[in-house]
Structures are given as C-alpha cells and as structure tokens.
Design goal:
The structure is a homodimer.
Chain A lengths: L1 H28 L6 H7 L4 H7 L3 H25 L4 H18 L1 H8 L14 H14 L9 H20 L8 H12 L3
Chain A binds a DNA duplex through helix 3.
Chain lengths: ~190, ~190
DNA sequence: CTCGGTTGTCTAGCAGTGCTAGAATCAATC
DNA sequence: GATTGATTCTAGCACTGCTAGACAACCGAG
C-alpha cells in the first residue's frame, strides 16, 4: 500500500509543479509562450506527461485559474476585513481587486479572459470561483441599496472593475488615473 | 496613367475584400478560424498576397477593428440622436453599445480584446477610434456631474460597459439580466 | 534473487499555424 | 513580338497542440 501511496503523492506533486510552472512561465513571458514543449522542458519531462495529468492546454489554464480564484478570494477578504464601515470596505475591495489583476496579469487572464473550460455562474461552477464571487458579494451587499438584488449589484460592480482592469492592462486606458476612476465608481455605484 | 490608376483601384478593392472576408470568417467561426491559409483561399489568392497588403495577421485584425470603430460611432450617434433628455440619451447609448458588441462579437474582439497593433488613448491613435470615444463622450459629458472630468467619466462608464459586454459574452455572467444591469449602471453612474 | 507483467515515460510523427525566399508567370512597354 | 519589370505562386521554414506505439523501469510473485 505504502508504495502506491508514495506514487500518488509524487503524481500530485508533479501536477502541482506543472500548474506552478505554467503560471510562472505565463507571468514571465505571457500565455503565448506557454507551449506544451516549453512547459515540458521546464518540468524536465516530455510532453506526453502533461497529457497524463490534463486533457490539454485548456485544462492547465483552468487549473491556474482555479488557483488564482482561491488566492484572490483570500486577498479580497483580507483587504475588506481591515477596513471599517461599508463604504471603506467597498473601496478597499475595489483596490484589492485591481491590485491583484495588476500584479498577476497572467492568472487574471486565465480566470476571465482565456478559455479554461470552466463553467461560470452555474450549478457546476467550481467552488473557488463561487467563493471568489462570494467574497465580492459579502462587502457589496452592504451598499447595494434597497430594492436592488445584491447578486445583481455584485455582478454589475464586478463587471465595472473587470472593464477597468482589462482596458487598463490592454493599454486602452491611460494608467495614471486609475485611482480616480475607482473613486468615481465606488462613490456613484454605492447606495448608502 | 490610366493603367496605373486601374491597378491601384484593383489593389484597393482587393484590400477591402481581404478585410471584409476576414471579418466575415471571424464572425462565422471565430478568430481562431481566421488563418492565413483559409483567408487566402476565400479571396482566391495565395497566402503571400496577404502580406503584400498587410504586414501580418495582426494588421488585418487592426483593419477590422478600425472598420468596426467607425461603424460603432455611427450606431451610437444614431441611437442617442433619437432620444430626448440627457438620461434617456445615456440609456440609449449604453444599449446601443452592448447591442453592437452582441451583434458583432468578432469585430468587438478585434477592437478591444485582440492585439491589432493599434495605439489607444494617445496622440497617434487612429481617427476612427478617437471618434468612437468622442461619440461616447458627447452624451456622457451631460451626466458627468459637477467637478468630474467628462473624459474621466467617459472612461469609467465605458469600462463598465466593456466589462458587461465581455463577461456576458464569455459566459461569465448570465445573459438574462443584462437589461437590469444596464439600468442599474445608468441610474447610479449618472449625476444629474 | 530472478523473472513476468504492468505501469510509466519517451521518441517520433501528424496536421496544423504564421510567415517568407526564390521561382515562375503575367502584362505593359518599346 | 521580344524584353523587362511587377506580380503572384510554389515550396518550405520553424513552430504549435496533440498522440500512437516503442521502450524502459519498476513492483510483486515464485
């Protein structure tokens, strides 16, 4: 038994190595540079090994996305718990969100830009994704305002943040005024 | 002279054909399906012909993006001019924007999602892009509110719309409640 | 301690991609 | 009608994601 256990452990280790390496490579040189060959070389195995863990490149992106979602949920909750008052919490939330997107562009792309084969806003949505959304909702529900569904409000607020994050990073928006845009967004969208 | 003129005209025609075909193919089967080989086959020339018009695939995407920007500007102005009152104009603007994105997903991607090698929010930004932004600003400036820079307000509003458009299309947001999200956005972000 | 069989890994290859050098062909001019 | 110059094509490069089948390493039984 212990032999099989060791093998399973080693396999799990290697799977983590693949995901971590893919993420690292993507952050360093962009997702285009994450080819199965390069990835295989970095983990010091041949390409087919990747396919014994994941069905394809898409699934590797999905794995990075899930890791990122869990991380982001932690970052968001850390930021909001340090703030007092609904309004301050929302500001902290927005900043933390954009901060995470800026610091981890490749992971952010894996989550929301690329196709990682993950289901969103559905029954079969993976737990980390649901939880990241929940982290947003916890603070945003406080400022949704009367008569506005908190879920709907969260979706809308999130979309606005997502737009800022992607347009800024794609150089569609000048990065200097990000702070002021966030303030405007928080001020206007918050009800109370 | 007339011979050269005819040749120039034919060349320009062919260039338009390339852009139109790329766009059509992208809308039908997605940008992944727009390969230089398939594109060449559809215009009934060999691949190298594409490179005598454009420096590469990126520039073809850029050409589609410019075409789309001009179209979108027209669509936005048409929608706003039919509405009376600042608030109604902004609502019409938002709906027209999302409508264009939904009806022309591939063109929308070329503009804001893919790399078309275009400069944004800069001096050397192509005219159609500046004009599309201007079309947004014209209506949004009316509801920016006192003490808020209309340009900054437009950027923020645009980002929110962009977030809704992309997240909805990428199935990150359920499409049913789009209308309600737009209403929420317009109601809260508009000042007056 | 050796052997058979399973498990795991690798080599080699497929069909596709964007892009290009150089051959071939076409057409306008003399 | 021949020549010359522009235009277009054929063929190929280095790369992509992915996979079949050969090969090697290892475990458990005798």
């Amino acid at each position: 038994m212990s032999v099989q256990e060791r093998k399973q452990r080693e396999r799990a280790d290697r799977e983590r190595l693949i995901v971590a390496t893919a993420r690292e490579l993507a952050e360093q040189q962009g997702w285009d540079a994450v080819t199965t060959r390069r990835l295989a070389e970095r983990i010091e195995y041949s390409q087919p090994v990747l396919y014994s863990h994941f069905s394809g490149k898409r699934e590797i992106i999905g794995a990075v996305a899930l890791e990122g979602a869990a991380e982001m949920a932690v970052a968001l909750r850390a930021a909001t718990s340090a703030a007092t008052g609904p309004r301050a919490r929302v500001t902290a939330l927005a900043r933390a969100y954009l901060d995470y997107a800026e610091r981890n562009p490749a992971v952010y792309d894996a989550m929301f830009q690329l196709d990682g084969g993950l289901a969103f806003a559905q029954e079969e949505t993976p737990e980390p994704l649901k939880d990241a959304f929940a982290a947003l909702l916890e603070s945003l529900a406080e400022v949704a305002g009367a008569g506005v569904d908190p879920g709907l409000f969260t979706e809308t607020f999130w979309a606005a943040l997502h737009g800022l994050a992607t347009l800024t990073r794609a150089r569609r928006l000048p990065p200097e005024d990000t702070e002021r845009r966030v303030d405007l967004l928080v001020t206007r969208l918050s009800a109370a």
